[in-house]
Specification:
This protein is of the alpha+beta class. It has five helices and nine strands; from the N terminus they run ββββααβαββαββα. The protein has a four-stranded antiparallel beta sheet, with helices on one face.
Amino acid sequence: MADYNYDWEYWFDADGNFIYVSPSCQRISGYEPKAFYDNENLLIDITHNKNTELKIAQTEHKLKESLQAKDKFLSIIAHDLRSPFQSILGFSNLLTENFDDFSEKEKKKFIGIIHLGISSTYGLLENLLLWSHAQKGSIRFQPESLNLFLLVHEIKDILNQSFLKKGIVFKVKIDEDIYAKADRDMLSTIIRNLLSNAIKFTPKKGAIEISAKVITESEKQTYTEVTINDNGVEIPDDVQKKLFRVRL
């Protein structure tokens, strides 16, 4: 931080410009402040100094917010990774130590649970990688024409064990000829996260439905609307307002 020390007040110069002034000010390296008299008092224009101080304070505040957001995000990721890893370690250990004691049905069940844990973990790691690229500004947006029917069914296969575990009925009401121009990785991540949240908050033997339709506005601008409905717990209005903010 620059080496300066002064008492300051607001002031307007002869041309009506807003400035900061001080009766005394230490010199900042490379900058010689302007000095003038007013009513026989020596005043020094410290606007440059004050603006520098304000910029430094703003930068420090943004840096602090960024670090808090990063710590919060990593805490969430670590917490979400713990559960699937516990399942993977627990059931793989059972199979390792008692493989011959289980029936074929039990083995398939345990392997399915392990697969579910791996799929969940993979999704979280993909989100972490995407967030890392976003922080570095290195995400490349590569839009292409995507068949939503095929894309959603690919995501359905990834999340299938999650649906089966809770007995959730998943309905895809998307025509085979509906397309959307989007980045494949970004759109897949968004839909997968929305469906994962729907599974998480939908009760056992509940229902989740995804649909899509092409909408043409009056200005002849066409876009594709994707909707996910479930019969899970509703999000309170006050929480909805905070959905797109990282809580520090």
